[in-house]
Every structure is written in C-alpha cells, then in structure tokens.
Amino acid sequence: MRAPAAADASAIARVHVATWRATYGHLIAESFFDDDALRRRETMWREILVGQDSARRLVVAEVDGTIVGFAHAGSPLGAHPVRGLQLYTLYVLPAHHGSGVGQALLDAVLGDEAAELWVARDNPRALGFYRRNGFGPDGATADDEETGLAGLRLVR
C-alpha cells in the first residue's frame, strides 16, 4: 500500500476501466471501456494526482510492482452528506478479489471511521463487502448521471 504519484495515472486508469468492464460490462455501454474512455480516465487521474488535496486520502495496492487496486476518500461530495467522510472509489482487479487487497485499501483510507459511500444497486459483490465492513443503506438512492446505474448510499 502506498500513496500514488502523478506517474501512476495511467496504471490507475487501466485498473479503473478494467474493473468497470468486469463489473458493469453487461449493464452499461461499451463507450465506458474503449480507448477514449481510458484516455479520459488517464486525464482525470492525472489531474487528481497533480492537484492532490492533503485532506483527501488516496492509496494504491501493488502486487509484484503492478498496481492492482486503488481507493480514494475525502470530504463528502454532492448534496446532503450524512457523514464527514466519503469513500469515492475502491476498485480491485478481479484476479485479486478475495486476496485481502480490497480490505487493505478500505482500511488504509477509512480505518474504522464513520463514512458514507455510493454503490451500484446491481453490484452484489460490493454490497456484501461493504456490509461485512459495517455499512448499510440509509434509504438514499440516486441514478448515476454518467452511467444511468441505480445507486444506493451506504453509511456506517
């Protein structure tokens, strides 16, 4: 587990796009996984990493020198937050599911602090993972503007 550098933007983007394809490939358009999507994610992550705010928590997990997952948390985004900390993203390549990488990433950015996060309703693996970590739905729902996926807010 380590803090990422700006040079990690491409590797993080590759994990981001690959995990979306594996998880949501049957639910959202191919345009979320194509070369243009990868370039957009690289740009997004480069901007995040260059402008890294010290109040945000961002870590990557590596196996044999290759980034296989990442997590990002900070002050809540959007309207009506219910906790002072939000998990924005936590993605682990499918080949590393069940290895403890996801748990280590979550622990690194949240510890045991109270937090909120949004998760796709059609992501049973993530829902189970967050339930095991003390999160539960608080009744808030929203459709993701970018993907159209139905989301649930979870809190602990």
Automatic annotation (TrEMBL):
Signal peptide: none annotated. CDD domains: NAT_SF. PROSITE patterns: GNAT. SUPFAM superfamilies: Acyl-CoA N-acyltransferases (Nat). Keywords: Acyltransferase, Transferase. The keyword Transferase applies. Residues 1-156 form the N-acetyltransferase domain. This is N-acetyltransferase domain-containing protein. The lineage of its organism: Bacteria, Bacillati, Actinomycetota, Actinomycetes, Mycobacteriales.
